[in-house]
Amino acid sequence: MTASDWKKIFKQLNAKPAVKEKFLKHCKPKERKTGIAVKKCERCGRFGAHINSYGLNLCRHCFREIATEIGFKKYS
Predict the structure, then answer these.
(1) What CATH number belongs to 40-76?
(2) Please, which residues have CB within 8 angstroms of residue 51's CB and are 6 or more apart in sequence?
(3) CA–CA distance from 22 to each of 6, 14, 50 (Å)?
(4) What is the mean pLDDT of residues 41-64?
(5) Distance in angstroms between the alpha carbons of the first and the last residue of the chain
(6) Residues 12, 21: Cα–Cα separation, whole Å
(7) Rounded to whole angstroms, how far apart are CA atoms 37 and 40?
(8) Which residue from 45, 55, 68, 70 has the least number of CB within 10 angstroms?
């Protein structure tokens, strides 16, 4: 189970409080302090190609889509 999958399961368990409580006790992954799962794109949730400069916390794909809206200019 990847870091993003357990959140999908958590949405399904909202209807079953007893099962949700058991899931939180035994199956929820721990919060990571180091590694690839710490840095995640705030827009799409992707782990790879992370741009942390200027406090952006975006992957390169999302950055290219919204760079002009944020105020970055492309120099050619």
Answers:
(1) 4.10.830.10
(2) 57, 58, 59, 60, 63
(3) 14, 12, 34
(4) 89
(5) 42
(6) 13
(7) 7
(8) 55
Residue type, 12: Q
Residues 40-48, mean pLDDT to the nearest whole number? 86
Whether the predicted model's global pTM rises above the 0.85 cut? no
Q: What is the DSSP string of 32-76?
A: PSSSTTTS--TTT---SSEE-GGG--EEHHHHHHHHHHHT-----
What CA–CA distance (Å, rounded) separates 51 from 53? 6
The token duo for 37 is 């799962």
Of 10, 66, 7, 13, residue with least CA distance to 37: 7
Q: How far apart are CA 40 and CA 23, in angstroms?
A: 23
